[in-house]
Structure formats: C-alpha cells, structure tokens
Design a protein that fits this description.
The chain has 191 residues and is α/β, with parallel strands linked by helices. It has a single domain, classed as Rossmann fold. 30% of the residues lie in helices and 29% in strands. It has a six-stranded mixed sheet with strand order 5-4-3-6-7-8, with helices on both faces. The longest helix has 13 residues. The chain is globular and about 50 Å long.
C-alpha cells in the first residue's frame, strides 16, 4: 500500500475527515477539514505515519527536527525518534514563531521542519523564518498531508505522505456562505 493510500485510510479510520463549512486558520473557508487531532490522539497511527515520514529523509543526516506548536510537537518528536536525533518546537508569539524553554539551534545545524496539515504554509513559513534567524541549514520540510495539491512552494524540498487538493474560498466568494450554511471554526490558531 502506498504512503498516500495508507495515510488517507488512517485519517478516515480516525474520523479525521470532516465535511461541512469550516473557517480555516488561514481565514479561508472550506467544505472539508482534516481534524489532525483525531489522528494524533492514537499513538499507533502517529507511529505509523511518522515512521513513514522519517523514512523520506533517512539519508539526509538530519541533526534536529523542528515542528510548530501544537500538532507539530508530536510529529517532530516521533520523526526525530525514528531518525535517532532530537526534536524541538517553535511557539507562536506575535506575528511569528520563537523558541522558548531553552530551545535554540546551532549555526549550520541540519534541520528538518515537519508539520501535520499543509494548507497555505503559514506555520511552516514562520518556522522557516525562525530557523533562518539562527542560521540553521534547512534540509527539507515534511508534512503528513498537503491539502494544497502541491501548490505551496517554500524554496526547500517538500515531501508529503499524502497530497490532495481541497477547494478553499475567500469569505467574499464562498458558495457555502451564500447558501447560508453555518460556519464552524475548528482548530486552535487565533484568526
């Protein structure tokens, strides 16, 4: 079974694929939402997905895995475990990300950035900016699911276990709003 098939199967088994009218952290609207925490609450699913994600970077001599809060913490930890290195996480502060809790990077340290669901790339771009402030060497970016259909570019190699294209709408042209469907704000990022 391919990484893509197995990843979607895990999301479906966990009840993580939701249909409705959702306000995404990007401010866009969508009729599909992947509730990653329905997957991340199951250690056996996290273990399978992160082992596969780590294998995509096994020959890249990664020295540290960095993920954004909140889901990225779990993914960074499990990917780092599989790569036999350590993980740290970047927390939101103001308009960007910072390292707290004594975390930092050494100049030139080989960094893998990981996250759960890629939609617009906002969280990953914030982590890229932070890693660059420390002069870390970004080797690649790994995500469990790229819901942009491969349209988001970072300037670094991006590898996703699964890719799909989900339509997102700005609020002004959202057909779900025009139909009067109730808007649900899942997730945790302030919009």
């Amino acid at each position: 079974m391919s990484n893509q098939q197995e990843s979607f199967e895990i999301f479906e088994k966990a009840g993580a694929l939701l249909k409705g009218h959702f306000l995404l952290s990007s401010g866009l609207h969508s009729d599909l939402y992947f509730e990653k925490f329905q997957v991340l609450q199951h250690p056996e699913y996290v273990e399978i997905l992160c082992k596969k994600l780590a294998s995509l970077f096994k020959d890249d001599k990664i020295e540290v895995v960095v993920g954004p809060t909140t889901g990225g913490i779990i993914i960074a930890y499990e990917v780092a475990k599989n790569l036999k290195t350590h993980s740290i996480f970047a927390e939101s502060e103001g308009e960007g990300r910072v390292f707290k809790r004594g975390f930092s990077l050494k100049k030139g340290e080989r960094v893998l950035i990981v996250d759960d669901i890629l939609t617009t790339g906002k969280s990953i771009n914030e982590v890229i900016d932070l890693v660059n402030k420390y002069d870390g060497e970004i080797i690649g970016i790994g995500v469990l699911l790229d819901r942009s259909g491969g349209k988001v570019e970072f300037g670094y190699p991006l590898k996703a276990l699964a890719t799909t294209e989900v339509k997102n709408y700005s609020p002004e042209v959202c057909p779900l709003c025009k139909k009067g469907e109730p808007l649900v704000k899942p997730g945790s990022r302030k919009i």
